[in-house]
Amino acid sequence: MRILIRQLFITSLALGALGLGASSAYAQSSLQSSSAPASASSTQDPAQALIGLNKQLDTIKTTLSSKTATGTPLNDLRSQAGTVQQQANQWLETLTPQMDSVQSRLTVLGPPPAAGAPPETAAVSQQRRQLERDKSKLDSEIKQAQLLSQDAIKLTTEIAETRNEQFQMQLAMRANSPLSLHFWSDIANSFPDDTDHLKRIGGLLADGVNDAWQPGNRTPFLLCLLGAVLLIVPGRWLVERAALAVVIRFMPEGHFRRSALAVIFTLTVTLSIGLAFWLIHQGLNWNDTLDEDLETLAQSIVRSAFFSAFIAGLGRALLSYHHPSWRLPVLMDGTARALRWFPWLLGGAFLLLGVLEHVNSAAGSSLPATVCTHAFLALLISGLIGTALVRIKRIKRHHDHEKQVKHSLWVGALAGVATLAVAVAWLAVLSGYIAFAFFISWQMLWVGMIVASLYMLIHLQHDLFETLLTPKGRSGQKLQSAFNISPNALEQSSTILSAICRVLLLLVAVGTLLMPFGGGPNDLFSHIGNVFVGLKVGQLTIKPGAIFNALIVFVAGMLVVRIIKRWLAEQLLPKTRFDLGMQMSIITLLNYVAVVIVFALSLKTADVSLESLTWIASALSVGIGFGLQAIVSNFISGLILLAEQPVKVGDWVSMSGVEGDVKRINVRATEIQLWDRSTMIVPNSQFITQNVRNVTHGNALGRVKITLPMPLGTDAAKMREIMMEVLTGSEVTLETPAPYVRLDDVTSSAMTFSGVAYVHSPRDASAVKSDLLFEMLSRLEKAQLPLSTPQSMIVRNLGPLGEDSPAAPG
Q1: Alpha carbons 36 and 57: distance in angstroms, whole number
Q2: CB 744 within 8 A of CB 716
Q3: Which residue ranges of the chain lie beneath pLDDT 70?
Q4: Which of 182, 347, 354, 513 is the most buried (most CB within 10 A)?
Q5: DSSP 563-588
Q6: Tens-digit pLDDT profile for residues 648-676
Q7: Which residues contact 707 (CB under 8 A, 6 or more apart)?
């Protein structure tokens, strides 16, 4: 059921993003697929239901292998096979829990008593036999459901291959050339019958209009017609002006406003014209008065109208010839003006294509009439595209003397392919390969619409993320303040999200391009999903959906961890008695634990068990034994540092010639800021295995020692008094331990006095010592107690050849 919902969601996303609601074949297939039961009925017998599914599968196989298979649309057969597969999977999901329940009850009962053991009671024996019968039945039904699902998958693949073969045969089919008389003679011969068929459709349409004009239906019919006219002419203009006013009022200036306007203008044209046709259809069929065939034709025309309006609106929004500043592609104004009518002409050509195709189908037109219609439409569509290319080339040639606009390589390649396709289509029509020419013309229109839609959506999502996550924008500043995200992280997130959306849009576009070949977005994503589901690495199975869910859990978990860390660091821990180092250690340890928990939850969401990772653990154990010993040792040492805290953030440490403040304790290494503001990265293991001096550990006090040499005749008592006054008079020195002054030494030339005082922190000792020295020197000068001057002796050689001798060389 989850797979079905995901596939339907992806398909609806592709249709909504690229405007593919008008594809009638795919819409019918989706409608039939959605008509399947949403879940297996609990009241229905599984055995009978599986037998019914088996009969349906046999009927599909018989229809496919019979000679009349060409009379049944292969898309219908493919849809029916897909429905059988979905129902088989639903029964499989229903029966598997029942099987687990029965097995659990058997496990509770335990094995039967062995020979010679006391027999079990009759009630237990009866319950065991009943559970065994239920287990056998459920096992058979589960196996049958699995076989049905596999057979349906194989049959779906076979139908797709058959359709591709028929498609290739149709393209290779050659008819009479329009340049030959046989082509026109066949049309003339079948003209009376085709005219009668068209008259029948015209009669049904006349009857429908007549019924709509009856008194009970006339007023709704006229109101619907009036509403359609108002939607197409003034309604679209008013909606565009209102949307423009809202965008200018609430959206900031920039690229996002431009891309948003392109999308809005595309949707306004699509909805105004499409809803106008829908209103006309509702007016004609107000009380279900239309014939069944005419109702089917009208619904098909309405879908074609939506699609053709999307083509016209998309081209109009991209050209934007009235407002060049709103234009997304890089085009000269002359080119935009020259092509301003071509989106409407191409949209009208597709509407004509849809109308003629459905009219031929409803009227049962002859083969010559169908071939003639295809030839006309191929020439019309390819002719319009060729004319647009010629105009573009002429404008470029006319502006050769001006500065040319540089285009990307893919633009030139696309124009070259389109030119070649136009030439091939015309040659194919003239040579009789009309089916091939019609296919090429339709593909040009289809690919152009897909490429233009992809171009617009890529610009929209890129501009959206750039606007929301720009560091200078309002939303970016709110994200920075709320989650403490750096500007670089915002820019990187914008780039990553834009790249992911671009890849997803490319996948949807590729899947949509495959639709005319019998594929589609659903098939593309199913194929990709099957590839990943089948990818196994050892016992580990990789599933794309589980990986996506795991990424969501991991990102959400890391955001929660970030919020909790910020709350601890800014609100809770500053209000406690812990010092800064203890606070940082607590935050770091909790961060490690939280990251491990989030990672484990992500693995659980991805359906990855620890048993599946045993081979990874084995490989890592070998690596740890050889090359990862140092990394593991540093990691364990980091945990020890955070737990025991011999060294914490904010400490002043000295080891192996490195002395500075501990700024951060990471998983592998510790950052120490030196006195010159540089940072030394020290592995954590060195703090465990080597001698480390922690100057500030245990609330250590700072010690200030001042040594002054004085002459021998100095009054020692006066000197001691002055030094004690300075040491005790300072506001930063401590009373306990009390300062003291000592006479350390008396030599033949000086007396050495030393004074010692204590301060609150070793970091303050140097500055306090300087202040005390300034104060002592000032007081000694006032007391006329000079410091001792060291005596130096200079010995000179005054001999006859000494440097002062007159005989010495000058």
Answers
A1: 15
A2: no
A3: 1-43, 67-75, 116, 160, 163-172, 399-408, 514-545, 579, 581, 608-629, 631-632, 698-699, 789-810
A4: 347
A5: HHHHHIIIIIGGGSS--HHHHHHHHH
A6: 887 888 887 788 888 888 777 888 888 78
A7: 744, 752, 753, 754
615: in domain = yes
The per-residue pLDDT for range 704-717, each reduced to its tens digit, is 889 888 888 888 88
Which residue type sits at 711? P
**Are both 695 and 711 inside the same structural domain?**
no
Close Cβ partners of 545 (under 8 Å, ≥ 6 residues apart): 2, 6, 529
**Shared domain check, 287 and 161:** no
The verdict on 635 and 718 lying in the same domain is no
Nearest to 303 by CA among 107, 15, 67: 15
Range 295-331 burial, b when 16+ CB lie within 10 A, else e: bebbbbbbbbbbbbbbbbbbbbbbbbbeeeebbbbeb
- Please give the Cα distance from 197 to 208 (Å, whole number): 17
CATH value at residue 711 = 3.30.70.100
CA gap 728, 739 in Å, rounded: 7
**CA 443 – CA 417 distance, rounded (Å):** 12
Structural contact between residues 489 and 358, judged by C-beta atoms closer than 8 angstroms: no
Domains: count for the chain: 5
Query: Could you give the CA distance from residue 343 to residue 483 in angstroms, rounded to a whole number?
Result: 46
The pLDDT, as a whole number, for residue 712 is: 84
Please give the Cα distance from 1 to 19 (Å, whole number). 27
672 close to 710: Cβ distance less than 8 angstroms: no
Cis peptide before 737 (omega within 30 of 0): yes
Residues 638 and 720 in one domain: no
Could you tell me which of 754, 755, 730, 734 has the C-alpha nearest to residue 744? Answer: 754
Same domain, residue pair 255 and 314: yes
For the sheet with 658-665, list strands across it: 679-683, 669-673, 658-665, 652-655, 693-694
Question: How many Å apart are CA 257 and CA 5, to the nearest integer?
Answer: 34
pLDDT of res. 35: 37
Query: Which uninterrupted H or E stretch holds 186?
Result: helix 181-212
Residues 6+ apart with CB under 8 A from 739: 724, 727, 728, 733, 755, 756, 757, 758
Category of 356 on φ-ψ map: left (φ > 0), alpha (ψ -120 to 50) or beta: alpha
Strand partners, 752: 709, 745
Residue in the structure block whose two tokens are 């195709």: 357
Listed residue (717, 726, 647) closest to 682, CA to CA: 647
Q: 194 lies in a domain? A: yes
CA atoms within 13 A on the CB side of 340: 12
Enter the tokens of residue 105: 């009850």
Full-model pTM = 0.58
Smallest CA-to-CA distance from 346 within 301, 303, 384 is with 384
